[in-house]
Amino acid sequence: MITAPFAGRECKFQLRLGEMAELERLVGHGIGAIYMRIAGHTFSHREVWDTIRLGLEGGGMSSIAASALVLRYQNEPLMDYLPLAGQIVAAAVNGVPKGKAETEGVSEADPATSRSSSEPGRSRGSHRRKSAR
Length: 133
What we know:
The protein is mainly α. It contains five helices and two strands, in the order ββααααα. Strands 1-2 form a two-stranded antiparallel sheet. α1 (17-27) packs antiparallel against α3 and α3 packs across α5 (82-94). The longest helix has 14 residues, at 45-58. The chain is globular. The termini are far apart. The model is unreliable at 101-133 (pLDDT under 50).
């Protein structure tokens, strides 16, 4: 879960499995494609607004309240809300860094340029013990 400013206050956002599945269904792309589309600026308006709305619901807001809140801002420029949508999807895909409590907010780092937590070309589960010969 992340906490970020929206609608003049700090709000909690989280895309759990149900919200992710609903987002994928609504926009017609998988979560990885949504992540890349937002980061690559090839997003649709639904990817931005539905991400924020579903993130609010996953953060504990009722669906009616989340829909009403998001509706108030849908006539404003998408670019004002693109970073928030990107942070919500990045948290769902990458997780929230350890040590970052939900009340500490989110990193301003671009999720598309974040370093991997494992060595290139090597998954965490692929480390083998060398046999002693």
